[in-house]
Design brief:
71 residues, Ribosomal Protein L24e, Chain: T, two-stranded antiparallel sheet, 1 helix, 37% strand
Length: 71
């Protein structure tokens, strides 16, 4: 998968970089994507690429880290 959020589908947008003399050149606005481990409703844990808006909004459920008792 490319640079796209796997939950909301947010991806790069195209716009103009405007100089002081008002010359316009193309540029890209990339979303802030992070790779996080997500636990699905079926219990499966997998790494997915999501935007920070989905992480803050509660769309990502992180798995519980289990610490085993050692010797």
């Amino acid at each position: 998968m490319g640079k796209q959020c796997e939950i909301c589908g947010k991806k790069a947008q195209v716009g103009n970089l405007v100089s002081h003399s008002n010359i316009k050149t193309k540029r890209r606005f990339n979303p802030n994507l992070q790779t996080v481990r997500h636990q699905f409703d079926s219990g499966e844990v997998r790494s997915i690429t999501v935007c920070t808006r989905c992480m803050r909004g509660g769309a990502v459920r992180k798995p519980v880290v289990r610490v085993e008792q050692g010797e």
